[in-house]
Amino acid sequence: MRLLVVPVLLWLERIFVAAEPVDLTGVRDELHFHVHARATNKDGSGPVYKDPKAPIEDRVNDLLPRMTIQEKVAQIIQGDMNGWMDLTDPLDDTKTFNQSGLEDMMSTKAGSIWGGYLVPWDKFVYGVNIGQRCLMDNTTLGIPAMFQSEGLHGFTNNGTTWPSPIGLAASFNTDLVQKAAATIADEAEGLGFSQIFAPVLDLSRELRWGRVEENFGEDPFLTGEMGHAYVTGLQSGKRRDASSTAAARMASTCKHFAAFGSPQGGLNIAQVTGGERELRTMYLKPFNRACVQSLAIMTAYSSYDGIPAIANYHLLNEILRQEWGYKYWVTTDAGSVDLLITLHGTCDTRECAAKTAVENGISGEMGGGTFTYLTLPDQVKAGSVNVSAIDETVKAMLRTKFTLGLFENPYPYDDYLTSLRTLETRDLLHQMEQEAIVLLENRNNLLPLNTDIGSVALIGPQADRVTVRAPRAAPAETDHQHHYTASRSSSPPHP
Ligand SMILES: *[C@@H]1O[C@H](CO)[C@@H](O)[C@H](O)[C@H]1NC(C)=O
Ligand SMILES: *[C@@H]1O[C@H](CO)[C@@H](O)[C@H](O)[C@H]1NC(C)=O
Ligand SMILES: *[C@@H]1O[C@H](CO)[C@@H](O)[C@H](O)[C@H]1NC(C)=O
Ligand SMILES: *[C@@H]1O[C@H](CO)[C@@H](O)[C@H](O)[C@H]1NC(C)=O
């Protein structure tokens, strides 16, 4: 009897290539669902994870045991929209996609998808729809992805450009910063984004570091207040048609956790020295103020007191998860898992790097490296990686998605144009530009310019245009960095 039933149920397993057998390793057997029809229940009732009214924790706990180890690992590796779309030319508006590229991407890297490309908005929306349709309609469990971009002072996919964070902080106006952040979410939400990599809460205490303008200054209190306003603004409101339990429309991503801003010699990603007291009284203060409610956190490239941040059990488990009770998505920065081998020297192999990062960090792997997490399914089967670390990481990702209401509606909105670069946003921007101006008093002629100078030459590519600041790329980060530049001048965007 069973021999007859199984082939029929196998058909229900909507795999991309029907002939390929599904590796069901990891799926919990003998529960309330069939292993070969995992998105249904044995008694015919609907699965709790698809019930928009069910409590979020119940939905997470219902979905996790239905997942194969392959699906779990795919949740925690960042994918990229360039897997199915050609996004190389910012002006090309051809709406086509690569079906096999899409299927490859979604079977290995499907939890979050990088989408910070400067391409025409209608082409972008087309690409998001294809990706989400594939996940919702053509996979067994139907888990939507979070599409991600940058937004530390404006929405980088050709949205409104705000003053740099150092300028936003100079306004000392948290209400205005919160409104500014809300407009960034307005612009991103309609296009189908649900995760923005901001705010940056590093402290500008090492002025040789070339990224001080990405921060809200040197002070932990001001940085915490600005960061809190930013997170509140970005996450304000709910997605359309979201579940009743949804609590935010955008996953704000506090970064870089932690102690990133004072690298040795001012060199980006270099080690940071300090002890527990400095960690807690300086570096962690703004994160504790601003990020306990943010739906995502990104780890730092650097090490602190000799321990790489991405594999720092004390920081990521004992403080963040246990002490602060943080239960949402934590991701590493681009290429940073490989740095355990190439920079920190704590691992010789990709297997070691993946194991160390996931077990100590309960965090996902961003692109920009060699995707060391692809080694995890085999490592779990071989017994060398504890699957409970992967389970906890997947649960954090699912919690963030359920809190966004993504399972109910992960798609872009048809009327996305109505919230991009609106006149209201521009008025707010003008107010912010005025409040961000800093007046310097030239006491004892300290400043180098005389008042009798007739004109001042501004030289260089930034002289006549406004751009959204992109994070300085790490050595391993090669393919993300050229997508950020947006321009408000009439000249074409510079890569
Ligand atoms: C489509 O994707 C597949 C799989 O990633 C890749 O091998 C192929 O080159 C892609 N085709 C085009 C036209 O880009
Ligand atoms: C950016 O937006 C402006 C204003 O809507 C538009 O003129 C320009 O073509 C856009 N650039 C790209 C690359 O989409
Ligand atoms: C979904 O699967 C169908 C049938 O195999 C296919 O025609 C369609 O292109 C797929 N859609 C996506 C978005 O992958
Ligand atoms: C796996 O991790 C869990 C949670 O930390 C722990 O309870 C369990 O003992 C670990 N299992 C092994 C085999 O180390």
Automatic annotation (TrEMBL):
Q: Where is this region: Disordered?
A: 470-495
List compositional bias (Polar residues) regions by residue number: 484-495
Family note = Belongs to the glycosyl hydrolase 3 family.
Q: Check the record and name the InterPro entries matching this protein.
A: Cellulose_Degrad_GH3, GH, Glyco_hydro_3_C_sf, Glyco_hydro_3_N, Glyco_hydro_3_N_sf
> What are the transmembrane regions?
none
Q: Name one Pfam family in it.
A: Glyco_hydro_3
Keywords linked to the UniProt accession = Hydrolase, Signal
Q: Which Gene3D superfamilies match?
A: Glycoside hydrolase family 3 C-terminal domain, Glycoside hydrolase, family 3, N-terminal domain
What SUPFAM superfamilies does this protein map onto? Answer: (Trans)glycosidases, Beta-D-glucan exohydrolase, C-terminal domain
One annotated GO molecular function: beta-glucosidase activity
Taking the record's annotation, the residue ranges forming a coiled coil are none
- Per UniProt, residues of the Glycoside hydrolase family 3 N-terminal domain are 68-399
A single Gene Ontology biological process assigned to it is: glucan catabolic process
The positions making up the signal sequence are 1-19
* Protein name per Swiss-Prot or TrEMBL: Glycoside hydrolase family 3 N-terminal domain-containing protein
